[in-house]
Specification:
The protein is of the alpha/beta class. The chain has two domains: 40 residues, no CATH class; 191 residues, Rossmann fold (3-Layer(aba) Sandwich). 39% of the residues lie in helices and 15% in strands. It contains nine helices and six strands. Strands 1-6-5-2 form a four-stranded parallel sheet. Strands 3-4 form a two-stranded antiparallel ribbon. Helix 3 crosses helix 4, helix 4 packs parallel to helix 6 and helix 7 runs parallel beside helix 9. About 4% of the residues have low confidence.
């Protein structure tokens, strides 16, 4: 056996790399997610449906024109997806976002989305929250997606102008009022004429993403689409 392989195996025994989803040690050749989790994660596959048949798109019907609504995984309480989101959002495991973004981006390329988007934009955090947490969990997902799709991403195309209360216990109308006027375009030259893909960690009612899409369209975006890691 070649010496580099022996050394790699020895290091893996001392400091085993674990799957981001289930925390079990990764086998040789596995990268970030184990083979079992890659097979068992609850994929939505909505990106394979025509837009008119996509149930996620219905959350935006009659509100504003959103071209594609894309959600990678189905959120399940106490499951692998909740664990991944918790690691990303609260434990600074930004690799989770990059890995899932890259995998989803590769899926989208395979489904014909390779040349669809001109810019990927993460939903921004308010500066105070960003300073407190130290990072925006949507940034790493945007980075992974953009890398796989072969298009740019920019974390400052949108700005959050006011801090808001948690959306967790609010209904759809309350969520909309909570975020309706808290975003503004910060880099008009990046957005103008582009098909912008706005991304976040979870799609629930869609109120936050809807507010961001409205601002991007008003700033001159040619089209807007939405992508999230998970769908609740």
């Amino acid at each position: 056996m070649p010496l580099p392989v022996v050394l790699s195996d020895f290091v893996s025994l001392l400091f085993p790399r674990v799957c981001l989803a289930c925390q079990e040690p990764l086998a040789r050749g596995e990268d970030d997610l184990c083979t079992d989790c890659r097979a068992q994660l609850p994929y939505t596959d909505y990106h394979r449906l025509p837009p008119a048949d996509n149930p996620l798109a219905r959350r935006f019907w009659g509100k504003l024109p959103v071209t594609h609504v894309l959600g990678y995984l189905t959120f399940q309480k106490h499951g692998r997806v909740q664990h991944l989101l918790h690691e990303l959002k609260y434990r600074n495991q930004q690799q989770v976002g990059r890995v899932l973004g890259r995998h989803f981006g590769q899926e989208l390329v395979g489904a014909g989305y390779a040349d669809t988007f001109g810019l990927v934009v993460p939903v921004p955090l308010h500066p105070r929250k960003l300073a407190r947490r130290g990072y925006n969990q949507a940034d790493s997902f945007a980075e992974g997606l953009a890398t796989a799709l072969g298009c740019p991403w920019h974390p400052e195309a949108l700005r959050r102008t006011a801090a808001t209360e948690s959306q967790t216990r609010k209904n759809r109308l309350q969520r909309w009022h909570n975020v309706a006027t808290v975003f503004e375009a910060a880099r008009f030259e990046l957005v103008a004429g582009q098909h912008v893909l706005i991304v976040d960690d979870v799609l629930t009612t869609g109120a936050t993403l809807e507010a961001c899409c409205a601002v991007l369209l008003a700033a001159g975006a040619r089209e807007v689409s939405v992508a999230t890691i998970a769908v609740a």
